[in-house]
Amino acid sequence: MPKETLAEFQIQRLEILSADGTLDEALEPDIPRDKLLEMYRVMLLCRFFDERAFKLQRQGRLGTYPQIIGQEASQCVPVLCLEKKDWLVPTYRGQGSYFARGMDLKNSLLYWGGDDRGVDFPKDQNDLIFAIPVGSHLTQAAGLAWASKLLKKGQVVLTYLGDGATSKGDFHESMNFAGVYGLPVVYLIENNQWAISVPRTAQSASKTLAQKAFGYGLEGIQVDGNDPLALYKASREAVDRARAGKGATVIEAVTYRLGHHTTADDATRYRTDAEVESWRRKDPIERLRKHLLAKGVLDVPAVERIRRDCEEKVQKAVEAYESCPEPDPLTMFDHMYGRPTWAIEEQRKEFEEILRDRQEALAMAVPMPEGRFP
User: Which end of the chain has fewer CB atoms < 10 Å from its terminal CB, N or C?
Assistant: First the structure.
């Protein structure tokens, strides 16, 4: 018998606002003025925060930090399509998504400063803590979506991942589960071209990452990840589709990591300045600024006011972070279990003794001369 075609798929790519600010009016989504302004503000706030956090790390005032510079659109815009009851499940490069959900900037600094008091999200919404191991959060996202469906809560789960995570088993297991059970989850792939030092070309032989969705019965689309309008349109449709019970969507946002993988990385060892500069010309914030000016949503004085406001917010956050009192190290035992085990109780008592002995030793120590550290 002749071969029979059982299924065919096409991957569409969406771009509405080009790098030079040219708008495809036929595709322009209907975004309220206040939402456009919110989009611009939070993206610019992320940029200022990112630049300041990088400097703080270099000055020894912050721990290892992963910049999101260049990825502000893919970080912030999809989140603006969620309701408060929905779930956000980000990666370690996810502070932009948190800020778009209303997290206090100070908390992000606390977290990257090694203080777990930074894990303090707005109480009336559902945000999970960063997933540091690559891809490990994706099965949790599927679990949350399954619970939402079973309990009929009408919640959508938005989860982020990078191009490198698409090679992890967790990604495929999660998508398979989401496809089988028709789960309300959106997978936002930030394809920033580099999985640390592994280029996209060495990560997967598939022409797109979005097409991986079809193997599991999900919808898939690729968007210009530096185009805020395209991201909003694709995310809005994916969230609405999930909430209507029509299943999961994979959105591949093609963007670029302008900075290092983290402040512990040196990206100049594996990529060229010319490559970085070519992507810098596709800056998502500048692209949106040009559009809003042309549309009359912003004028030059308004742009300057927003810039000053963002700078002030970042400065206040830094001051609040550095004026926080030292944390109580015993709190590390408070959230291990709902009811502490005997082993945890014993460890806590042992640590209390260590702290007490340390305090007594410090109290008996001879003061050092001024300008010297003990």
Answer: N
> What's the full length of the chain, in residues?
374
**HEC string of 97-142?**
HHHHCCCCHHHHHHHHCCCHHHCCCCCCCEECCCECCCCCCHHHHH
Say what the pLDDT of residue 329 is: 86
225 within 8 A of 282, measured Cβ to Cβ? no
Spot the catalytic one: 257, 260, 287, 289.
Answer: 257
Give the pair of three-digit tokens for residue 170. Answer: 């967790």
pTM for the whole structure: 0.91
User: Tokens 């894990």 sit at which residue?
Assistant: 119
Query: Would strands 194-195 and 198-199 be described as parallel, antiparallel, or unpaired?
Result: antiparallel
Pick the closest to residue 39 from 84, 85, 73 (CA basis).
73
Q: Following CA atoms 94, 80, 129, 285 in sequence, which dihedral angle do they give, to the nearest 10 degrees?
A: 20
Burial of 164 (0-12, 13-18, 19+ CB in 10 A): buried
Is 369 in a helix, a strand, or coil? coil
How far CA 10 is from CA of 190, 234, 240, in Å, comes to: 20, 16, 21
In angstroms, the CA 43 to CA 49 distance is 10
- Name the token pair of 90: 């980000």
Is 105 in contact with 49 (CB distance < 8 Å)? yes
DSSP state of 69: T
Phi/psi zone of residue 217: left (φ > 0), alpha (ψ -120 to 50 degrees), beta?
left
Residue 40 is a catalytic residue: no
CA gap 41, 84 in Å, rounded: 19
pLDDT of residue 371: 43
Q: What is the CA radius of gyration of the chain?
A: 23
Question: Chain centroid to CA 67: how far?
Answer: 10
Residue from 270, 281, 308, 356 carrying the catalytic annotation: 270
Mean pLDDT by 10 residues, the chain (374 residues): 88 94 93 97 98 97 95 98 96 94 94 87 86 94 98 97 96 98 98 95 95 97 98 98 98 97 95 96 96 95 98 98 90 85 94 90 67 38
pLDDT value of residue 359: 86
Our answer to whether residue 321 is catalytic in this structure is no
Residue tagged active-site, from 261, 287, 289, 291: 261
Q: Is 348 a catalytic residue?
A: no
For residue 25, give the amino acid letter.
Answer: E
- pLDDT given at position 373: 34
